[in-house]
Amino acid sequence: MIDWSQCTAVERIPGKVSGTWLFSGTRVPVKALFENLEGGATVAEFLEWFPGVTQEHVEAVLEHTQRSLAEV
Question: What is the distance between the alpha carbons of residues 33 and 20, in angstroms, rounded to a whole number?
Answer without folding.
Answer: 13
